[in-house]
Amino acid sequence: MSTTGERAPAPVRGAATNLALATLAFTMTFWAWNLVGPLSKTYSEALDLTPTQTSLLVAFPVLVGALGRIPVGALTDRYGGRRMFTAVCAVSIVPVLLVGLSGGSFALMLVSGFLLGVAGTSFAVGIPFVSAWFPPHRRGFATGVFGAGMGGTALSAFATPWLAERLGLLGTHLVIALALAATGTAMALFSRDAPGWEPRTEALLPRLGQAARLKRTWQLSALYALAFGGFVAFSTYLPTILTTAYGFVQTEAGMRTAGFALAAVIARPVGGTLSDRVGPVRVCVASFGAVSALSVFLAFEPPAELAAGTAFVLTAFMLGLGTGGVFALLAKVVEPARVGAVTGLVGAAGGLGGYFPPLVMGVVYQATGAYLIGFVLLAAVALAAAVYTALALGRAAGPARRPRPGTAVDAG
C-alpha cells in the first residue's frame, strides 16, 4: 500500500524517550510471561510430571499471550500505546502472584499460567506505539530496538532460578509483581502517544476483519510464526532440553538459555537496521535458510559445550534477525492506520508458533527418548519459509532508501 504526497518527517522530539520506555515495558512484561519455563524442572519434580505434562505447563502462557494480541493490537489503535502499556502491566500483576501461589497443584498451575499469557500481549501494544513515533525509513530500526525487549526472556532465564533459590517461589513472584507495578507507573507518568497519532473509533470486529482480509497479513503471519515462534519455543523449552538431553542442573540450563535469548535480542535491532539498508526480504531469507541448516546439525545431538552451544547461539541470532526483518517488512507494506490490528494478528501467529513446538518436543522425547524428529521438522519448515519468502515477497527485497525531505515515500 502506498500513499502519495507524504513527506519525510523531521525527527520528532521525544521519540527516543518513548522508544526507551516502550522497550523497558516490553522487557518487564516478557520476563513475567516467561516465568514458568526457567523453573520447569522444579515444577516437574515437585508435581511428578511427565515430559508431555511439563511441556504443556511451559506452553500454556504462550497461548493467551498469542491470541490476546489480536484484540490488544486493535485496542491500541483506539486507546493508544500509553494507556494500553499501563493496563497490561497492571493486569499482569495478578497472574504473576497466582503462579507464585499455585506451585503445589498442576491444575492450578495450568490456570495461572494461562492467565499469565496476558503479559505476552504487550508486543501488540509496542509495535504501533513505536511505529507512530518514527518515519517509514526509520521504522525498521525503531521496531528492531523495541523488539530487543524480548530480552526479558533472557532476564527471566538467568534471574528467575537465581531469585527462586534465594527468595523462594512466592518471594520471586512478589519481586516481579513490584517491578511490573513500577513499570506501569512509569508508562503512565512519562510516556505519551506520538503527536500525529489519532485514535481509530470504528468497531473492533470490523477493523480486525479488514486486517484479516489483507494478503500481507497472512504472509507476514506465516513468517513471524517461524521467526518469533521459534524464539519463544526455544526460550521456554530450552531449559527442559538442556536438563533432559544434556544433564545440566536448572541454574546452568537457565544461564545457557539466557545466552540464547541474549543473542536473539542483539540480533533483532540488527535485523531491523539491515532491513532498512538491504531490504527485509533478503534478511528473512538468510535467517530462515540458516535456521534450517542449524536445525539439521542440532538434530544429531552434538556435544554440549562447544558444538551444541555454538549452534544454539547461532540459531538464536538468526531467529533474531528474522524477527527484525518481518516487522521491518510490516512497517513498510501496511498503512499506519492498520498497523495495530495487523500487528495483533501477526503477533498472535508468532505466539502460536511458539506454543506448539514445546508440545511436539515433549511428545517426541517421551516417545523416542531424543529430540531428533523435532529438530528435523523445524529444519523442513524453515527451509520452506525461506523459499516461500524469496518467491512470494521477492519484489520487496530491494534496499530501503532514505527519502529526501519533500519527496514522496512508501508508507505501506
Question: What does the model show?
Answer:
This protein has 412 residues and is an all-alpha fold. The chain has a single domain, classed as Growth Hormone, Chain: A, CATH 1.20.1250. The chain is 76% helix and 0% strand. It is built from 16 helices and no strands. α4 runs parallel beside α7 and α11 runs antiparallel to α14.
- Enumerate how many helices there are, as a single number: 16
**Rg on CA atoms, Å:** 20 Å
Number of strands: 0
What's the CATH class, please? Mainly Alpha
CATH topology: Growth Hormone, Chain: A
How do the helices and strands line up, and which of them pair or pack?
Elements: H1 15-33, H2 40-47, H3 51-67, H4 69-79, H5 81-101, H6 106-116, H7 122-131, H8 139-147, H9 152-190, H10 204-212, H11 215-244, H12 250-278, H13 280-299, H14 304-333, H15 339-368, H16 372-392
Helix pairs in contact: 1-5, 1-7, 1-8, 1-9, 2-3, 3-6, 3-11, 3-15, 4-5, 4-7, 4-15, 5-6, 5-7, 5-9, 7-8, 7-15, 8-12, 8-14, 9-12, 11-12, 11-14, 11-15, 12-13, 12-14, 13-14, 13-16
